[in-house]
Specification:
- By secondary structure, the chain is mostly beta strands.
- 8% of the residues lie in helices and 38% in strands.
- It has three helices and 15 strands.
- It has a seven-stranded antiparallel β-sheet. The chain has a six-stranded antiparallel β-barrel with strand order 10-11-12-15-14-13. Strands 6-7 form a two-stranded antiparallel sheet.
């Protein structure tokens, strides 16, 4: 259920101007099995048709090989537009009556490591401060992203963040494989950045110099969803350094997930 438009507009636009809007798109996720805390991760907000979703990596919500089966997640939300040092926890169940409340994508190559869960706007505190990407922020067929393009990955590596203001941190990255091609047949491209556990689900974004009005006050193109570091199985752990490359899943799957 959505709050009235006036309330939704107030929470979405009245953040202090000195805070960069990009930092308000991303939240820290803590996964739980009942009362037992499991892991930290990252996620970000995406709006479509006046509905609000949390986007993260699929393995954050369900990871059979790792025996990771949370039944709920908790977000840390800003709840005072005049004081971003104030926050509140917001719990989201992952199952109801034995059925998952989150959606994950699949294609011909198998699972896509991107998942969404809808957020009930009516359950949010009336003063919640956030920003959300929309379909306008997704790359279009005419958008050309060159290899080596500078990117940012916004998240919570190892759960680390500004604990006073509850803000994420960013890592600088570049596009490390041909953007638009499916690397090794999978639905992702590569980035070159130093990342850690806890960054899974973070948005991978590119600054847009002259954004169209549809971008609002969020001048960033959403190029991908960070999933995990990529390594070579034949690497000698003593002689060879890690590649330092990461998988970023293409975000076009989001429209499929939020409309399904």
């Amino acid at each position: 259920m959505s709050r009235p438009d006036s309330a939704r507009s107030r929470t979405h636009h009245d953040a202090p101007r000195m805070i960069e809007s990009l930092l308000l798109t991303t939240v820290r996720i803590v996964t739980f099995d009942r009362l037992r805390q499991l892991t930290n991760a990252s996620g970000f907000f995406f709006e479509h048709d006046q509905r609000l979703f949390l986007v993260t990596s699929g393995h954050v919500l369900f990871d059979k090989p790792a025996r990771h089966f949370p039944d709920r997640i908790e977000l840390e939300l800003h709840n005072n537009p005049d004081n971003l040092a104030e926050s509140t926890g917001f719990s989201i169940p992952l199952y109801r009556d034995g059925q998952s409340l989150w959606r994950q994508g699949f294609d011909a190559a198998g699972g896509i490591d991107v998942a969404v869960v809808e957020i009930d706007r009516g359950a949010l505190p009336a003063t919640t401060v956030y920003r959300a990407f929309t379909s306008a922020h997704l790359p279009g067929s005419l958008d050309h992203v060159e290899i080596g393009t500078s990117l940012l990955i916004v998240g919570f590596p190892l759960g680390f963040h500004d604990t006073w203001h509850h803000m994420p941190v960013v890592r600088q990255a570049v596009v490390a494989s041909s953007f638009g091609l499916r690397f090794q047949g999978e639905g992702y491209f590569l980035t070159d950045a130093r990342t850690h556990r806890g960054t899974s689900g973070a948005p991978v974004v590119m600054r847009v110099a002259n954004p169209p009005p549809s971008y609002g006050d969020l001048p960033w193109m959403l190029l991908g969803v960070h999933s995990a570091r990529l390594d070579v199985g034949t690497r000698d752990l003593q002689l060879d350094e890690a590649l330092g490359l990461n998988c970023a899943w293409y975000p076009d799957i989001l429209l499929t997930l939020v409309m399904s």
